[in-house]
Amino acid sequence: MQKFYSRWFVRLFAVLLILNLSGCGYNKFQSLDEESKASWSEVLNQYQRRADLVPNLVSVVKGYAEHEKEVFTQVADARSRVGSMQVTAEVLNDPEAFAKFQAAQGQMTSALSRLMAIAENYPNLKADQSFRDLQAQLEGTENRITVARNRYIETIKVYNVAVRSFPQNLTAMMFGYKTKPSFTVENEKAISVAPTVSFDDKK
Fold first, then answer.
1. pTM of the entire structure?
2. Which helix (H) or strand (E) holds 175?
3. Which structural domain range is residue 39 located in?
């Protein structure tokens, strides 16, 4: 009989614990955490898509402006820096690592802007169909990056508000949920300006 009551008490305690956790936001944190990882994954996918375009862009531009070595070096360095970073969902819990990611992508954006600007001085490059195709792909990718980044910002905003709000913040502290970093205002200004990828034909 004692064993029966012991088991019953354990089961009752488990049920009460589950109900308590649900009421205090535990399930909500689980959901928000997964949403943040998913939105972050999409940001990474779009940045990777952009990085994958770089070799072909450089190759086409070099065919018309081989002596622009400084710009090519800047682009290569930026792509190397981005490629060398081991970026996982854990970056979301490491503000320092997140800041390094932002800086690397900002460098890539600046380098691409300089690369695309070269075409202004080379009419034949601007008319090259391969360049135009890559130009269109880059423009589309930059738009996708903006959309993915904005979704991430909104997702993290909701998550961070939940972490800070009472009484959910008690559950957050209990299970180790902390605020996650987002794009800073300074960085947002820099990366919200996509590389110039369209040109007006000069006649």
1. 0.77
2. helix 168-175
3. 29-191
